[in-house]
Amino acid sequence: MAKEVGKVFAYYSKIEVAAIKLTGELRVGDKITVKGATTDFEQVVSSMQSEHKKVEKAKKGDSIGIKVKDKVRPNDIVYKE
């Protein structure tokens, strides 16, 4: 069962990075699904940054950046399997 773990608040198309405010814990290696009005894809978190530093995990309340394989939009929801 997928659980909501965050919401996209920005997307940087040149570097294909989604900025996400977490509502749950997320780790490198987790399988996520991003869903929105026109967004719907799955991927594995291959790397994550917080405060411009690479991190292996992040917790509720953190703002993180992750590389995404497709375009995302503000308010898209991030789910973890």
Main attributes of the structure:
Elongation Factor Tu (Ef-tu), domain 3, two-stranded antiparallel sheet, 54% strand, eight-stranded antiparallel β-sheet, globular, 81 residues, mainly beta
Characterization of this structure:
By secondary structure, the protein is mainly beta. The protein has a single domain, classed as Translation factors (Elongation Factor Tu (Ef-tu), domain 3, Beta Barrel). The protein contains no helices and 10 strands. The strands form 2 sheets. Strands 5-4-10-1-2-9-6-7 form an 8-stranded antiparallel sheet, with no helix packed on it. The chain is globular and about 30 Å long.
Q: Care to give the gist of this entry?
A:
The protein is mainly beta and 81 residues long. 0% of the residues lie in helices and 54% in strands.
- Gap between N and C termini: 6 Å
Strand content: over 45%
Q: How many separate structural domains?
A: 1
Question: Could you say what the CATH topology is called?
Answer: Elongation Factor Tu (Ef-tu), domain 3
The count of β-strands is 10
Mean pLDDT: 97
Strand arrangement, major sheet? 5-4-10-1-2-9-6-7
Quick one: biggest sheet?
Answer: 8 strands, antiparallel
Q: Provide the structure class.
A: mainly beta
The CATH architecture can be given as: Beta Barrel
Spans with pLDDT under 50 lasting ≥5 residues?
Answer: none
- The helix/strand order is EEEEEEEEEE
Q: How would the global form be characterised?
A: globular
Supply the CATH superfamily name: Translation factors
Topology:
Layout: E1 3-12, E2 17-22, E3 26-27, E4 31-35, E5 40-44, E6 48-50, E7 53-54, E8 57-58, E9 63-67, E10 77-80
Antiparallel strand pairs: 1-2, 1-10, 2-9, 3-8, 4-5, 4-10, 6-7, 6-9
